[in-house]
Design brief:
40% of the residues lie in helices and 18% in strands. It is α/β, with parallel strands linked by helices and 134 residues long. The protein has a single domain, classed as Rossmann fold. The protein has a 5-stranded parallel sheet, sandwiched between helices. Helix 1 links the parallel strand 1 and strand 2. Helix 2 runs parallel beside helix 3.
Length: 134
């Protein structure tokens, strides 16, 4: 069985990536294959990388406050390309509780806020993949 392929992305102009790097390392240590896009990625860049790398998961970390625009845009692009049904899309960072239901309605499967452990995120991914690993 191949490892879970996960794209870790920082959408928008957010310049802080410590959390994303901590998660990327935890994912790697859990046996996942991690692709980290780096800072200041557009939704188009994230969707293109997800498709090119044939990932199982897109995990986006955002602290800039633009989550209501950027995260749903990634979902729309993945849907437009016909790959959304195969990819688990996650968000995390400083996201107000009142925005979480709206993000989920927009297609983000789960939102992890400060205080979530890496073990919780890993377990969620392992239990909620959209396609079988071959």
């Amino acid at each position: 069985m191949r490892p879970i392929r996960i794209l870790v992305a920082k959408p928008g102009l957010d310049g802080h990536d410590r959390g994303a790097k901590v998660l990327a390392r935890a994912f790697r240590d859990a046996g996942m294959e991690v692709i980290y896009t780096g800072l200041r990625q557009t939704p188009e860049m994230i969707a293109a990388a997800a498709i090119q790398e044939d990932v199982d998961v897109v995990a986006m970390s955002i602290l800039s406050g633009a989550h209501m625009h950027l995260l749903p845009r990634v979902v729309r692009l993945l849907k437009d390309e016909g790959v959304y049904d195969d990819i688990l899309v996650l968000g995390g960072g400083v996201i107000p509780k009142e925005d979480i239901p709206l993000l989920k309605e927009a297609g983000i499967q789960e939102i992890f806020t400060p205080g979530a452990t890496t073990a919780e995120v890993i377990e969620y991914i392992q239990n909620n993949l959209k396609r079988a690993l071959g």
